[in-house]
Design goal:
This protein has a seven-stranded mixed beta sheet. A seven-stranded parallel beta sheet has the order 15-18-21-24-27-30-32, covered by helices on one side. A six-stranded parallel beta sheet has the order 14-17-20-23-26-29, with no helix packed on it. By secondary structure, the protein is an alpha/beta fold. Helices cover 18% and strands 29% of the residues. The chain has seven helices and 32 strands. It binds guanosine-5'-diphosphate-alpha-D-mannose and magnesium ion.
């Protein structure tokens, strides 16, 4: 059975980290999101995945060299500078997917513990053209919202309704089981929104069904969601083992320290600190509720709280970084600089003076 993973979006709300990597490669507790997805698919017996990408994403995925878990990976590319939306890539991959059997489509930018085998089973039991996994959230206005009958037929599907207008709080979890018939519903060679064009058509014909999924589901739309999702995963998946680095530092669980991490004396790491591969932390440093991407350097006496720090960033001595700060890859923060809450810094920028209000540093 085949699966198509949608991975060509631009993730503008995750800037500056998404300036240099697609969302599908954001690390979730030190493992790229795509790797979690491929692992889950392989565990469920899938042998082949088609990644619907743009040219740049394809290059970055290849460079990331993530393990494929024995799966055959094929790329289906949107035309250059002409993104096909969420429906167009399905039509584009028609030949790769074939017409033999139902298939899965996944939004690549979510962490979803949906039972893939079960949704396909339910899908085949109904006379559905599409069955979408539904998850319950508090505020459905950022998502696609579905209203269903007792038999789980979807009677309305509204993409991103205003807060008061959402008929239910069951939202599209971004996991679909589709019949090859779906290809007849998607126009060719143009951008198509699955949610705004295709699903409403299926609703009219009574061919759209829902699969209520109660498993873990996380969207990493904005940096705050991204931090929260990582913290939730830390709680769930990481052994709360005490890991000594030099002996004089203190590790407060839960934390995740990837290979090659070093921590100096009298530093306190955690709770909720995720340090990527080869991150190097000096002495007397405090880091909590934060994510450090691989290769970051944090010099002595610095404090990092509630922040995300991009790959190979360099943080000088005595630096203070507060909640909601997001630093792009390769950023350099010089000694004794303080960053107020909510400051973001574009990739490779150097900051030599303290920033006292929330803003984005672009030069
Ligand atoms: N190849 C390709 N080309 N992929 C795309 C394109 C494109 O032009 N545009 C978006 N995608 C991919 C994204 O990378 C993402 O994995 C998926 O399609 C969904 O697109 P988003 O842009 O992330 O949509 P959203 O988050 O606003 O809303 C969607 O996801 C929600 C769940 O997270 C919708 O499907 C909602 O209904 C749903 O609730
Ligand atoms: Mg999304």
């Amino acid at each position: 059975m085949k699966v198509l993973i949608l991975a060509g979006g631009f993730a503008t709300r995750l800037r500056p980290l998404s300036c240099t990597r697609p969302k599908i490669l954001f690390p979730m507790v030190n493992k790229p999101l795509l790797q979690w997805t491929l692992e889950r698919l392989a565990r469920n017996g899938f042998k082949e995945a088609i990644l619907a990408v743009n040219h740049q994403t394809e290059i970055l995925i290849e460079q990331s060299r993530i393990p494929k878990h024995g799966m055959k990976i094929t790329y289906s590319r949107d035309p250059f500078k002409k993104p096909l939306g969420t429906g167009g890539p399905v039509k584009k991959a028609e030949r790769l997917i074939g017409h033999d059997e139902p298939f899965l489509v996944l939004n690549g930018d979510i962490f979803a513990d949906v039972d893939y085998t079960d949704i396909l089973k339910i899908h085949e039991e109904k006379d559905a053209v599409a069955t979408i996994a539904l998850h319950r959230v508090e505020d459905p206005s950022r998502y696609g919202v579905a209203e269903l009958t007792k038999e789980n037929r979807i009677t309305r599907f509204i993409e991103k309704p205003p807060k008061e207008a959402a008929p239910t709080n069951r939202i599209n979890a971004g996991v679909y089981a589709l019949n090859p018939e779906i290809f007849n519903y998607i126009p060719e060679k143009r951008k198509v929104s699955m949610e705004r064009e295709v699903f409403p058509k299926l609703v009219e014909e009574g061919k759209l069904y829902g699969y209520v999924s109660e498993g873990l589901w996380m969207d990493i739309g904005e940096s705050e969601d991204y931090l929260e999702a990582n913290e939730a995963l830390l709680d769930l998946y990481v052994n709360q083992q005490k890991r000594k680095v030099t002996g004089k530092e203190q590790v407060k669980n839960p934390v995740a320290l990837d290979k090659g991490v070093s921590v100096g004396e009298e530093s306190v790491i955690g709770p909720y600190a995720i340090l990527g591969r080869n991150a190097s932390v000096g002495s007397h440093v405090h880091i909590r509720n934060s994510i450090l991407f691989p290769g970051t350097v944090i010099s002595d006496f610095s404090q990092i709280r509630g922040a995300i720090i991009g790959e190979d960033a360099f943080i000088g001595k005595g630096v203070k970084i507060r909640e909601g700060c997001v630093l792009g890859d390769g950023v350099r923060i010089n000694d004794n600089v303080s960053l107020a809450k909510g400051v973001s810094v574009c990739p490779a920028k150097e900051v030599s003076e303290s920033v006292l209000t929330s803003k984005c540093i672009i030069k």
